[in-house]
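Run log // design_07
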């Protein structure tokens, strides 16, 4: 008996339900950012409320962000960048574009997948090792580990030129 991995099961579902594929593709950015936020909170032992204070927003907004079902606004991305020192990179390109993307040091690919019809979305993010830990420590008033938090959701971290097909 052949064992299927989650990607094969998902592809099987998408073959049967094209609307499910379209929704999955539309939510790519929200899903990747959700995973990054949850990982950051867990690594720094922050509650949603403490994380919300760090960002200057309300806890329900953090919960919504972590659901991964709503595309974050440019303002939300800017708030994450300013508050946490994150460098967030988005590239939307035609689906067949296989150009190499050069990622800055410390950036990890969060997602590289189909987006709206005929396009693909590359999401990468990262931050200098001490910046995020320092911000989290000052927000919580407790000690956190200062090492870099890996943000790669589905792919191993990449740095330097990245080739995508």
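design_07 sequence
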């Amino acid at each position: 008996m052949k064992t299927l991995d989650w990607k094969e099961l998902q592809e099987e579902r998408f073959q049967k339900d094209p609307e499910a594929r379209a929704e999955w593709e539309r939510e790519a950015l929200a899903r990747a950012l959700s995973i990054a936020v949850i990982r950051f909170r867990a690594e720094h032992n922050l509650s949603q409320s403490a994380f919300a204070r760090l960002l200057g927003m309300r806890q329900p907004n953090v919960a919504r962000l972590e659901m991964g079902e709503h595309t974050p606004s440019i303002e939300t991305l800017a708030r994450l960048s300013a508050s946490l020192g994150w460098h967030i990179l988005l590239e939307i390109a035609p689906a067949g574009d296989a150009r190499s993307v050069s990622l800055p040091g410390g950036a990890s690919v969060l997602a590289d997948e189909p987006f709206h019809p005929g396009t693909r979305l590359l999401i990468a993010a990262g931050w200098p090792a001490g910046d995020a830990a320092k911000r989290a420590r000052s927000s919580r008033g407790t000690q956190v580990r200062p090492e870099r938090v890996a943000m790669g959701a589905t792919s191993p971290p990449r740095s330097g030129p990245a080739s995508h097909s």
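The longest helix spans residues 28-43.
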